Automatic annotation (TrEMBL):
The lineage of its organism: Bacteria, Pseudomonadati, Bacteroidota, Flavobacteriia, Flavobacteriales. It comes from Robiginitalea biformata (strain ATCC BAA-864 / DSM 15991 / KCTC 12146 / HTCC2501). Residues 197-327 form the 3-dehydroquinate synthase C-terminal domain. GO terms for biological process: amino acid biosynthetic process; aromatic amino acid family biosynthetic process. CDD domains: DHQS-like (cd08198). This is 3-dehydroquinate synthase. Its cofactor is NAD(+). One of its GO terms (molecular function) is 3-dehydroquinate synthase activity.
């Protein structure tokens, strides 16, 4: 007779996002306290992975990290500060990942050590992936330094790199020990990165929170001129909504096919690839949302007034809603992103569309002719910020 052993077990996770200023100011004990709480009475060996763009914008940061570690020798021991390329290049080859893995090996980073990733979303993703596959999982602390990373990319439990020309083809799910948002890093961002990060806030407002969308409408000009108060509220509420979904949505590791937090992303991922990652992720998401909003409108799901409000908000925040020139076959190439998205999700194609601001609906089929017409509305030379 065939025999079988089966057990069910649960593993609790604690997902923490902490807000501060001057995380490496020696008087700020937050990071030291986190490491002490992780392993009381032990000086935790810590490998810092630093985005080269952040290093350039903050030329004294490496010394500040070393000084900070020196201030708290009972809590932490700095193994190294490894500088890696910033931007999507961090994820587009195995080189940066292998450098992090080599540093983990060279410095004897073990499962009781910690990797601290400091940078934009791409570096956070890459370093997190390296940490997750080393020794089957080294502890990770994320210190995101862009709007997009602080309100979205670093808030999730995913890590990954691009492979075979596909976004996040290699990756893991791993809950970080903590995420630390330091608002001071945002002060040195280029305007383009400041603006791009707000796309994910619009996304989560559209699918989950109409009052948050109204806040973004009211504060659009203040956000565009870089007022720190509204931006901190944007980051906090956006991150809060993401974390509520992860913790309470019933599918933190995305075993199902529905991905409401990927609204606008099926075409965004393809646009990034088609443009050689010349688009920022947030810029691609804004275009992807505008496209799916137009498609929802053409299906009769979304009223004209709400369609125009969404397009106006994206424009007022500073996004150009014209698609980049993708060549004569651009529309068909972009539509290939639907199958790639289905493959990435697994199972049946599931695309999130809008029935209203704050109200979503998942669909499992896309009318390619209607979507192609929506794409045509956003081509260069068209009035891309007006509903039709």
């Amino acid at each position: 007779m065939d025999r079988q052993i089966e057990k069910t077990f649960n593993v609790p996770f604690r997902h923490r996002l902490l807000f501060t200023r001057g995380v490496f100011n020696p008087e700020n004990q937050l990071l030291a306290d986190l490491l002490h709480a992780y392993r009381p009475g032990v000086s935790v060996k810590t490998l810092f992975v630093l985005d080269s763009g952040v290093q350039k914008a903050h030329p004294g940061l490496e010394n500040a990290i070393q000084t900070y570690c020196g201030k708290y020798p009972e809590q932490m021991k700095c193994a190294d500060v490894l500088v890696v390329p910033g931007g999507e290049s961090a994820k587009n080859s195995e080189g940066p990942t292998n450098r992090v893995l080599k540093a983990i090996e060279n410095h004897g980073i073990c499962r009781h050590s910690v990797v601290v990733a400091i940078g934009g979303g791409a570096v956070i993703d890459m370093a997190g992936y390296a940490a997750a596959i080393a020794h089957r999982g080294v502890q990770l602390i994320r210190i995101p330094t862009t709007v997009l990373a602080q309100n979205d990319a670093a808030v999730g439990v995913k890590n990954g790199i691009n492979f075979y020309g596909k976004k996040n083809f290699l990756g893991t799910f791993a809950v970080p020990q903590a995420i630390i948002n330091d608002r001071d890093f945002l002060e040195t961002l280029e305007d383009r990165d400041w603006i791009a990060g707000s796309a994910e806030a619009v996304k989560v407002a559209l699918i989950k929170d109409a009052p948050f969308f109204e806040f973004l409408e009211r504060e659009a000009q203040a956000l565009r001129r870089r007022d720190p108060g509204p931006m901190q509220e944007l980051i906090f509420r956006c991150a809060e909504l993401h974390m509520e979904h992860i913790a309470g949505g019933g599918d933190p590791f995305e075993a199902g096919s529905s991905r409401p937090l990927d609204f606008g992303h099926w075409s965004a991922h393809k646009l990034e690839h088609l443009t050689g990652y010349g688009l920022r992720h947030g810029e691609a998401v804004a275009l992807g949302m505008a496209l799916d909003v137009r498609y929802s409108h053409r299906l009769g799901m979304l009223e004209p007034r709400e369609t125009q409000r969404i397009l106006d908000l994206l424009t007022n925040l500073g996004f150009d809603l014209h698609l980049p020139d993708l060549g004569p076959d651009g529309s068909q190439n972009l539509l290939q992103g639907l199958e790639e998205f289905r493959e990435h999700l697994g199972g049946v194609l599931t695309i999130t569309l809008l029935e209203g601001i704050g109200r979503k609906r998942d669909v499992h089929e896309i009318d390619r002719d209607i979507m192609a017409a929506a794409i045509a509305e956003m081509q260069p030379g068209k009035t891309a910020n007006k509903a039709s």
